[in-house]
Amino acid sequence: MNIILLSGGSGKRLWPLSNDIRSKQFIKIFGTDNGFESMVQRVYRQITTVDQNAMVTIATSKSQVSTVHNQLGNNIGISVEPCRRDTFAAIALATAYLHDIKDVDENEAVVVCPVDPYVEASYFRCVNAIYNTARQGDKNLVLMGIEPTYPSEKYGYIKPTYDQCGNCSFTFIEKPTAEKAKEYISDGALWNGGVFAYKLKYVLNKSRDMLGTSDYNELFSNYSNLEKISFDYAVVEHEKSIEVLRYNGTWKDLGTWNTLTEAMENDSVGEAIIDEASENVHVINELDVPIIAMGLKDVIISASPEGILVSDKAKSSYIKPIVDSLNQLVMFADKSWGTYKVLDIGKESMTIKVTLKSGEHMFYHSHERRDEVWTVISGRGRTIVDGMEQPIKVGDVITMAAGCKHTVIAETELQMIEVQLGKDISVADKRKFELEI
């Protein structure tokens, strides 16, 4: 099975655990035997359980590539969007990536679905059936229709319409009123879960017609100028050759704190104590200090280096405008090589805790406007500073002046305190160099 997972969003509704780099699909809140996993890790595990040979491609923004590699490894396929141009451009680019870069035949099928549904294994068995139907059948599009559990105003609907001869066509309705949704459901309408499959040549042809090209390199280089329109509006709603497969299992859209906590197996993640007088309270704590909740009801408490949220669960869905008004640095991030967390920001300094995974390394790079000092606090590894390599261990201090090329290689898990010193400290102040490690 070829599958494209759409992974976008800035994660404002799940602040302070999400930011422009780590969206909701990367937050680790789902319990496993070995700790916690994120939505994207859970979905990837479910896909490979249903089809261990599945070719999975993540369509995502440049800012999330390191996080994807951190959580899924370096062998995962990634179609990188240079900027945000909505789902039609993203799907066209990812389809061209499969054809031009991964050498998937244009007559092969691919299924597209969101990266962040909360579902059980039966969902991906249905996804696999949709893929096979597109591969073997003669319809241009094969969609998943989800059996509604209530007349929701939040979802789109796929409504079947029959002519006098019994032929079926489909109408797509976006977020109707609850009253209308109830009417549609009584007529057999299904939720539109954003899952659909097609043969590659179908979208390659659409890309040529609507964007002027289906060549991957041309799409990528001209991406910022592509039309900004959703795949539903551009393609699905105009297509007559459609088949819909029904899914009637567990499906939840975990887009707010209220819905996200409904899927949590435990009432807390991280260091937290919730007393017996509290009811329907969840705590997610990524700080190294305890949180105690007493006598609360229907409350979410979430803490990270970027801030602390204490909110009534129902009210938490209105957080986005408040977060939009904040002017924040990204205080934590998953990188392909490990993680970093900002500990302190001074007038001319920034202090960061850096953790590298065993066997990983940073890019060989330099900074023009700041000095750096690394202090090793656990593990061992090697540094390369202006071409000179030396081993490092706990207690070692490495100093890099502005303009100095440097990297670090972790032989075990390696933790360092990095102090950046300068009048103009910026994430943009980085120049990368080639180096054989």
Write a structural description.
The chain is of the alpha+beta class and 437 residues long. It has three domains: 2-253, Spore Coat Polysaccharide Biosynthesis Protein SpsA, Chain A, CATH 3.90.550; 257-324, no CATH class; 337-433, Jelly Rolls, CATH 2.60.120. Helix content is 22%, strand content 37%. It has ten helices and 30 strands. The protein has helices at residues 39-50, 65-72, 86-101, 121-136, 178-186, 200-211, 216-221, 231-234, 257-262, 320-324, and strands at residues 2-7, 30-32, 35-37, 55-61, 77-81, 109-114, 117-119, 141-146, 157-162, 168-173, 190-199, 242-247, 251-253, 268-269, 272-274, 279-285, 291-293, 297-304, 307-312, 332-335, 338-345, 349-356, 364-366, 371-378, 381-385, 388-392, 397-400, 406-410, 414-421, 431-433. Strands 1, 4, 5, 6, 8, 9, 10, 11 and 12 form a nine-stranded mixed β-sheet that branches. Strands 20-21-22-29-24-27 form a six-stranded antiparallel β-sheet. Strand 21 and strand 22 form a beta hairpin. Helix 1 crosses helix 4 and helix 3 (86-101) packs across helix 6 (200-211). The radius of gyration is 24 Å and the shape is globular. The mean pLDDT is 93.
